[in-house]
Amino acid sequence: xxxxxxxxxxxxxxxxxxxxxxxxxxxxxxxxxxxxxxxxxxxxxxxxxxxxxxxxxxxxxxxxxxxxxxxxxxxxxxxxxxxxxxxxxxxxxxxxxxxxxxxxxxxxxxxxxxxxxxxxxxxxxxxxxxxxxxxxxxxxxxxxxxxxxxxxxxxxxxxxxxxxxxxxxxxxxxxxxxxxxxxxxxxxxxxxxxxxxxxxxxxxxxxxxxxxxxxxxxxxxxxxxxxxxxxxxxxxxxxxxxxxxxxxxxxxxxxxxxxxxxxxxxxxxxxxxxxxxxxxxxxxxxxxxxxxxxxxxxxxxxxxxxxxxxxxxxxxxxxxxxxxxxxxxxxxxxxxxxxxxxxxxxxxxxxxxxxxxxxxxxxxxxxxxxxxxxxxxxxxxxxxxxxxxx
Length: 390
Known about the structure:
Distance between the termini: 106 Å
Order of helices and strands: EEEHHHHHHHHHEEEHHHHHH
Structural class: mainly alpha
Strand content: 5-15%
CATH architecture of the largest domain: Orthogonal Bundle
Number of strands: 6
Number of helices: 15
Radius of gyration: 28 Å
Largest sheet: 3 strands, antiparallel
Helix content: 40-55%
Oligomer: single chain
CATH topology of the largest domain: hpI Integrase, Chain A
C-alpha cells in the first residue's frame, strides 16, 4: 500500500492561530465558504509567513474581493495612513478638535475596508465610487449621516491631490455626491412632523430644571440662559465666570468665536451650588474646569454620547419627555428659537458664538451690554413669566 510522501502535519503554533495546516501541505483558512491558502507549511512550519500573508489579504478576502498584489503607486493604505497622521498633527496643534480627528480616522477606515489596502489610488474609477455609494445607502444611513460621509471621503481624496500623492484629481462621477439641500430640508421637516420640534416648551423646561440634580441642573440653566451646548458646559473654565458681576465670557470651542453673555440670578445661584459641591479633579489639566464628574473627570468628551448627553437622556426618560432629536443640545435650539423674537439677530449670534463672516462682522468691534441683556431677559421672561427679571 503506497504511503504519503508528505511529512507529518504540524500543530497550530497557538490556540488562537487563525490558520490550520491543510492535508494538501499548505496553511489554509475557510473564508466565505471556500478555502484560501497561504503557502506550504513544509517551508513555514511555524506559520509566521502565512500569518502575515493572511493579515495582508484578510480585508479583501472577507469582503469577497480578489487580493491585489502591492505594486507601484500610492495605495489606499498609504493615503489613509498619511491622512490620519496629518489630521493627528492638526489635532495636537489645536487646529481641529479630537472629535473631528475621530471622524477623519473613521472615514479612512471605511475607505480601506471598501477598496482594500493595496488598491492603487489612481486606479480608482467612477464605478468604484458608485459601488461605495450603493453600499452606504444599503446600510440605511439617514441623509445627514450620508451627506457627512460623502463629504469626508471627498476631502480625503482631495488631500491626496493637494499634497502631491497623485498627479490628477479623482473622478467621483455624478452619483457620489451629497444629498441636495432640498432633500435634507424635507428630511428635517418629516422628522419634525413625526417627532416634534427639537426644542423644549417652557413648561417642560421648568419641570426639567426642578427635577435635575447638580451639576446637570447648572448646565441646563447655562444651556437655556446662554445657548451653551454639551461641550461648552463640559469644558467651561472657572476663569470665564464672573459670578459677582453676573457674566460669562467664553469663546466657543468649536469656532473660536467671541462669546459673552449675562447670567440670570437663577443661573448664578445654581452654578455657585455646583461649585460648592465640586469634586476634586483627578487630572491636573482639569483643575480650572467648572464641572467635574463624581469620578473626578471632566464632563466634556469628544463623542456623541458623552456624559452630559447620557445624564440628560436619563432625566428626560424619567420625566417621560424623551423623544428622538430631543436632548441636551436642544437647549441651544430652544434659546435660538425664543431669542429670535427679539429681532436682534446680531446680539443673539454673539451670545451663541455664531461666526459672522460678513463685512459688518469684520468691522463691528463690540455689542453693548444692554442689547445682550435684552436678549437673555426676553428668554428669561419666556421661561419664568412670573419671576420677571429686573
